[in-house]
Amino acid sequence: MPGVMTQDFTDRASWFEAEAERLLPDLYGAALRLARNDADAQDLTATTFERAMGAIHRFQPVGGGMVAWLIRIARNAHSDTLRRQRRRGTEVANDGAEPAIDPSDDAVILRSLVDDLPRAQQDAIQLRFAAGLTAREIGGVLGISEAAAQKQVERGLRALKEAYGDD
After folding, report:
1. Same domain, 122 and 48
2. What DSSP assignment string belongs to 37-89?
3. Which of 20, 51, 122, 162 has its CA 20 to 30 A from that of 71?
4. Does 166 have pLDDT greater than 80?
5. What is the 3-state secondary structure (H, E, C) of 143-162?
6. Helix (H, G, I), strand (E, B) or coil at 95
7. Same domain for 14 and 90
8. pLDDT mean over 104-111
9. Are 112 and 64 contained in the same domain?
């Protein structure tokens, strides 16, 4: 019964399984934006679902719902991984595969421009366009109001338009 959660743990676990399958593409997209390579995104997605299943009893369907909750877990898991790597003195993992695109490609330019935005705008833009979240869901992930989330998206888009120009 997607979208409706019951209080019984057995039903909640079944509900989570159905919702997780439905939300997998959105979560994987967000994980790929965080990890920046397929192998790490797959690991991050798996870690996220593992952590979410262990914490399903604490899930409350507010602040953006299940997708916002899962992306928040993914962001925390990614931060944990980066902290561990820094403590060990290792570089952030990279699968070594170079993208098969021309550096003058619009997508490469746009990615670079997004990377130059302030962190709050980066996050809002990525959650809106890569994960397909609404302003309400973005607010839930980032811990800000829906209006503040919408404002971050608008500011980010304005900055991107100015930086990209019309050429």
Report:
1. no
2. SHHHHHHHHHHHHHHHHHTGGG--S-SSHHHHHHHHHHHHHHHHHHHHHHHHT
3. 162
4. no
5. CCCHHHHHHHHHHHHHHHHH
6. coil
7. yes
8. 67
9. no
> Of 50, 82, 97, which marks where a domain is finished?
97
Q: Percent of the chain scored above 90 by pLDDT?
A: 26
* Six token digits for residue 74: 């993914």
Q: How many domains does the chain have?
A: 2
What is the rounded radius of gyration, in angstroms, for the C-alpha atoms of the chain?
A: 17
- Look up the domain containing 132 and give its range: 99-167
Indicate the SS3 state at residue 101: coil
> Could you tell me which of 12, 113, 20, 127 has the C-alpha nearest to residue 66?
20
pLDDT at 149: 96
Same-domain check for residues 72 and 114: no
